[in-house]
Design brief:
With 307 residues, this protein is of the alpha/beta class. Helix content is 32%, strand content 21%. It is built from 8 helices and 10 strands. It has helices spanning 61-69, 108-112, 128-141, 157-170, 187-204, 215-221, 256-279, 299-305, and strands at 5-16, 33-45, 50-54, 76-81, 84-85, 93-96, 175-179, 207-211, 224-228, 235-240. The strands form 2 sheets. A 6-stranded mixed β-sheet has the order 6-7-8-3-9-10, with helices on both faces. It has a 4-stranded antiparallel β-sheet with strand order 2-1-4-5. Strand 4 and strand 5 form a beta hairpin. Helix 6 (215-221) packs across helix 7 (256-279). It is globular, with a radius of gyration of 21 Å. Residues 281-307 are annotated as: Disordered. It comes from Arthrobacter terricola.
Length: 307
């Protein structure tokens, strides 16, 4: 059976511009560097699966999501959805970011309607009333029935993220890509939205790829957890999550099976976090430099950076 999403031997490199030389020296700009974010990564996601993805900072998690969304292209390898190469953004995929990115001058309903304002797959453009009805439908799905006319400043952080999820669902994509969408929320709101997301997933049957730094969150939400290595990101292991159904009042996070699965993911991730810290891996700095990468003009150094 063809996978819904397939990454086949995908690598992604960035050329990072040179930064300024040490203060007080004349000229002497640093050389440009090659940053290898992902290296020969292969991963299949089944239709209707909820896959969570964890890895140390700088392991290429967001880069991987950008590739799936069609916001960037791989340096080598292929990214396929339904067996077709991803060549750019498409309405078969929706992205939910950590930041809500809501238009402050538009109501919740109007924010959700943004993706409905163009022509649909059948070439027909929805009327204003039809768009409002569909927005109300998806706001109700995320638990915001009755909040259609509220502006973002009238909503809590958790409610804003619900609007962002409703907006992504409204034009009915097959795949939902989520980049740490609950990271900025308090613990109680985060757990509440985790349960809401599982409910929405069951109701819609979407294929979900969910990036998180939280091991508990990864195990609680995912049917499988994909663990990435320190940069350059490679698929270290996929952990099948075998815990009781999350439906009900039982505290699944204290269940022995949950604790066991969490420890397994923690062990895999802990080693990679230590490797990343020892290597000094950091994200690209605001001046465009990547301090832990090596100059492109030194091939031997570049080979070590991609190892």
């Amino acid at each position: 059976m063809t996978a819904k999403i397939s990454l086949q031997n995908v690598s992604k490199q960035f050329t990072v511009r040179a930064g300024k030389g040490p203060k007080g020296l004349k000229g002497g700009a640093k050389e440009a560097t090659i940053l290898t974010a992902l290296d020969a990564l292969s991963l299949d996601v089944r239709d209707g699966e909820f896959l969570t993805l964890v890895g140390p900072s700088g392991s290429g998690k967001t880069t991987l999501l950008d590739l799936l969304a069609g916001l960037t292209t791989p340096t080598s390898g292929e990214v396929l959805v339904d067996g077709r190469p991803v060549t750019g953004p498409g309405k078969d995929r929706a992205v939910v970011f950590q930041q809500y990115a809501l238009f402050p001058w538009r109501t919740a309903s109007a924010n959700v309607s943004i993706g409905l304002e163009g022509k649909g797959p059948d070439g027909r453009k929805l009327t204003r009333r039809e768009r409002a009805a569909k927005a109300s439908e998806y706001l109700a799905l995320v638990g915001l029935a009755g909040f259609e006319d509220r502006f973002p400043h009238e909503l809590s952080g958790g409610m804003k993220q619900r609007v962002a999820i409703a907006r992504s669902l409204a034009y009915e994509p097959d795949v939902l890509l989520m980049d740490e969408p609950f990271a900025a929320l308090d613990a109680q709101t985060r757990e509440q939205l985790q349960d809401e997301l599982l409910r929405i997933w069951r109701a819609t049957g979407k294929t979900i790829v969910f990036i998180t730094h939280g091991i508990d969150e990864a195990v609680y939400l995912g049917q499988r957890v994909a663990v990435l290595s320190a940069r350059p990101g490679r698929l270290k292991e996929i952990v099948d999550v075998d815990i009781p159904d999350r439906v009900g009042d039982e505290d699944i996070r204290s269940h022995p099976a949950f604790v066991e699965q969490r420890h397994k993911v923690w062990t895999l991730l802990h080693d990679e976090v230590r490797v990343a810290q020892d290597a000094g891996h950091r994200k690209i700095l605001p001046d465009g430099t990547a301090p832990d990468e090596t100059p492109t003009t030194n091939p031997s150094n570049h080979e070590r950076s991609a190892a």
